[in-house]
Amino acid sequence: MGLRETKMERTRRFIADTAFDLFVAHGYDGTTIEQIAAAAEVGTRTLYRYYATKEALVVSFVENGLNAAMEAFEAQSDETPLSEALYAVVDSVERTITENPARLLALYEIFGRTTGLRAGLADLCWSWRRRLVQEILRRPDVEDDELFAELTAASTMNVIEVVVQKWTASGGAVEISDITRGVLELLHTRTIPVPALAG
After folding, report:
1. Could you give the domains of the chain?
2. pLDDT at 41
3. 131-149: per-residue pLDDT in tens?
4. Structure confidence at residue 97 (pLDDT)
5. pLDDT greater at residue 90 or residue 197
6. Among residues 4, 123, 164, 170, which is most buried (max CB within 10 A)?
7. How far apart are CA 37 and CA 43, in angstroms?
8. Which phi and psi (to 5°) does residue 86 adopt?
9. b vs e for 38-66, b when ≥16 Cβ sit within 10 Å of the residue's Cβ?
10. Which phi and psi (to 5°) does residue 50 adopt?
11. CB under 8 Å, gap of 24 or more: what pairs does 134-137 form?
């Protein structure tokens, strides 16, 4: 990434960080694009070059967290067992939440009240899961088993979704590490029923 691209990415992230600080302080509906631009010390037109809508600012927080999780997976060596490489994904999401608890709680409150944003979140998660499938297939210990990669990626995404939903439902009162540990222990110590062919 060149210097210009690095500066643009820094500005993009600063705008998103500033927007979320305002969303937490004043609520999503109580925050305007003009307020975000002023707080980020950029013009409104500049802000729109980075984010076409206020909704895009909200989705960007999830996108950044998922991108960090993907980078954590990609950083694992091919010698790392797949289960451990996948744990790096979950651990990255856990760290994102631990570092930004107020933002995540505000985020889910916003998603809960905005149908269009929920659709955008679903699309983002679907795209990220497809990326994880491709990264899993790249590993030499997986061979070329796309169905295996699809189910593995789906299971990983399900773990993330259950952990995040349980944490937000508690209002952040329960340690997310305890929820993660409980979910993973359950998966490894009990057989979770899956659909089976009749007979």
Report:
1. 1-52 (1.10.10.60), 54-189 (1.10.357.10)
2. 93
3. 999 999 999 988 889 999 9
4. 92
5. 90
6. 164
7. 6
8. -70, -35
9. eebebeeeebeebbeebbbbbbbbbbbbb
10. -90, -40
11. 135/70, 135/73, 135/74, 136/82
Structure-token pair, residue 197: 């062919």
Helices (H), the chain: 3-26, 33-40, 44-50, 54-74, 82-99, 101-113, 115-138, 146-169, 176-189
Tell me how far apart the alpha carbons of residues 37 and 44 are, in angstroms, rounded to a whole number: 6
pTM (whole model) above 0.70: yes
For the chain, the C-alpha Rg in angstroms (whole number) is 19
d(CA 144, CA 116): 36
Instruction: Work out the pLDDT band at 90, boundaries 50, 70, 90.
Output: very high
9-to-16, 64, 125 alpha-carbon distances in Å: 11, 11, 21
Residue 39 CA to residue 24 CA, distance in Å, equals 14
Structure-token pair, residue 151: 């189910």
| DSSP annotation of 139 | S
Q: How many residues does the chain have?
A: 199
Q: Number of C-alpha atoms within 13 angstroms, CB side, residue 139?
A: 24
Q: Residue 20: left (phi > 0), alpha (psi -120 to 50), or beta? A: alpha
Tens-place pLDDT, residues 68-79:
999 999 999 999
Phi, psi of 43, rounded to the nearest 5 degrees: -75, 160
Q: Which of 59, 49, 46, 45 is nearest to 16 (CA)?
A: 59
